[in-house]
Amino acid sequence: SLSDAANKTWLAKLANRNSMTRVNYGINGTYLSNTLYGAHGGAVVRYTAMDNDADYVLVFAGTNDARNSAVPMGTNDSTDITTFKGALNVLCDGLITKYPSKKIGFITPYLRDSNYPPYVEAIETICAKYGIPVFNNIKNGGVCWTNTAQLSAITLNDTYHLNEAGMDYAS
Fold first, then answer.
1. Using CA atoms, how far apart are residues 103 and 37, in angstroms rounded to an integer?
2. CB under 8 Å to 82, separation ≥6 — which residues?
3. Is 145 in contact with 157 (CB distance < 8 Å)?
4. Which of 31, 82, 86, 106 could staple 35 via S-S, CB 3.0–4.6 A?
5. 29-41: per-residue pLDDT in tens?
6. How far is CA 168 from CA 8, 11, 40, 157, 171, in A?
7. Residue 84 near residue 72 (C-beta atoms within 8 A)
8. How far is residue 170's CA from residue 107's CA, in Å, rounded to a whole number?
9. What is the torsion angle, in degrees rounded to the nearest 10, for the CA atoms of residue 81, residue 85, residue 88 and residue 92?
10. 134, 105 Cβ separation under 8 angstroms
11. To the nearest 5 percent, what fractions of the chain are helix, strand and coil?
């Protein structure tokens, strides 16, 4: 069942281990930037509908923006939410405004191919402007997406998604 699967994610495992209530606003396939995926806008517009009483906010987004360099990078001072850096600026400022006394952090995409490093660097650069900590999955995630033994052990072998063992590994 869906709720059964939701309880096997790294987020659920982390929340359960720390006796936390979790609310997952992620929608598979969507973007951080305001690029439509079906009827869904990006995280940059969806965050406004999140509960106001969160104590911690983790943003794990950018994979679909980086995939095939789908979203233009933009500039460090942009607020154009159709660009990656513009969306990051709007999202970071918006989250701090919405949750001024709460903990906010970003988690970068993993390294899938040569398209990803510039997007991960953009997350680190823009978050640094706002004092938001970043967990860099390329440097610290521990998953080598080119090692077939590891991929077989901890992913769904689709080059993008962790299996339950991978969720345990990531949490």
1. 28
2. 33, 34, 35, 71, 72
3. no
4. 31
5. 899 999 889 889 9
6. 8, 10, 29, 16, 5
7. yes
8. 11
9. -120
10. yes
11. 45, 10, 45
